Amino acid sequence: MAHNFLSALVGSFATPAAENPTVAMIEAAFRHHGMDARYINCEVEPAALGDAARGARAMGWRGFNCSIPHKVAIIQHLDGLGQSAETIGAVNCAVRRGDKLIGENTDGVGFMESLRTVVDPAGKSLVVFGAGGAARAIAVEAALAGAAKLTIVNRGKARGRELTRLINEKTKAKASFVLWDRAYAIDPAAHILVNATSIGLFPDVEGRLDIEMSTLRSGTIVADVIPNPPRTLLIREAEERGALTLDGLGMLVNQGVVSIRHWFGVDVDPQVMRRKVEDLFGV
Predict the structure, then answer these.
(1) Among the options 71, 124, 149, 276, which is catalytic?
(2) Confidence of residue 1 (pLDDT cuts 50, 70, 90)
(3) Residue 283: is its pLDDT beyond 90?
(4) Is 157 an active-site residue?
(5) I need a labelling partner for 178 at 20 to 30 A (CA). Which of 168, 186, 246, 257 fits?
């Protein structure tokens, strides 16, 4: 019998990397579907990102994910961008196609699939906290899905205004920017709030968004992209005020499914991945 001792390789580049459960859920999918592949979670500092991308290329990786803080910086180390990544201006999934590494974005699609389990964003008003890679993906995909209005709330003016301009120029939605220099009072007309920042991510599990929670209306949908821990302080406080909540596990699983499809052309069972992360966090 012939033996193959060379597994297909994919992975993730981030800093910090240790709190990211992606490796556990994706390898659970590999095992379930009998795929001879490995996912390697790598701590990569910004100054070493180019070296990491060249290393993945040299070692024949099928591709890799990029997380904080590399989703925009990775673009300069790739050979091209898929349509969604080009529109969004951020990459969370690099895919080997022939001898080229092409950047894709699965974050926004993953979030939209999760959001649609509770509401259709078409015609809705969203408030998005943050203007980094995840925020860009979510805001653009929401706009393309028919959201009527987006408010981008960010501490930095440049990135916040850039994302607002992108939405207004590339989509039919209307976007506005609010400088996040004080506690944010929630617009009573907002249907959906999305934390697309890293606030609340392990180990800062009690990190609090600077929001006037007293202005949160019952029935508002509050979504958090943080997967670790799934029940962030924002999620818990929103539930106490009667909001409908959506944790970060749905987006994490959905974007992972799309990433595996890009790398291997295989549609894996999302429930296998969801059960793995739920078991890890005792959900």
Answers:
(1) 71
(2) low
(3) no
(4) no
(5) 246
